[in-house]
Amino acid sequence: MFEYLDAKLKPLEDKVLNEERLTFEDGVTLFQSPDLLGVGRLANFVRERLNGNNAYFIHNRHINPTNICIHSCQFCAFGVKADAPNAYEKSLDEIFADAEAYQGGEVSEFHIVGGLHPDWPYRFYLDMVKGLKDRFPAVHLQAFTAVELHYLAQLAGRPLRETLIDLMDAGLGSIPGGGAEIFASRCRKKICNDKVTGEEWLEVHEIAHEVGLKSNATMLYGHLETIEERVDHLVRLRKLQDQTGGFVTFIPLAFHPENTPLDFLPSTTGQLDLRALAVSRLMLDNFPHVKAFWIMITPKIAQMSLAMGTDDMDGTVVEEKIIHAAGACTDQIFHRQTIVDMIREAGRIPVERDTLYEVLQPV
Ligand code: V47
Question: Average pLDDT, whole number, for the chain?
Answer without folding.
Answer: 94
